[in-house]
Sequence to fold (91 residues):
Amino acid sequence: MSSETGETICSSTGTELSRAAADELSEIASTPASADSSPPSPSHRRGGRWRCPADVAPMVQDMGLITCVSCDRRLPGSLVYQLIQVPDHPR
Fold:
């Protein structure tokens, strides 16, 4: 992610993130995985490739949970929903 002009842009897709999504990704990245108190939020399997907001390692999906293979951080379902509901995906 980059935020040179006040806008937060996904470096993989070029998509602008909402302020709420950018703030939540920053919070996940700055919180140690062992202190992750967010409950798992299983949902339907999502397509695409995911990267951890903390260490940029690949994330895998298992039973609807998107988890980092390196640090075990998870993306909450509400954040995943925000990220995939962007109307225009340039790539």
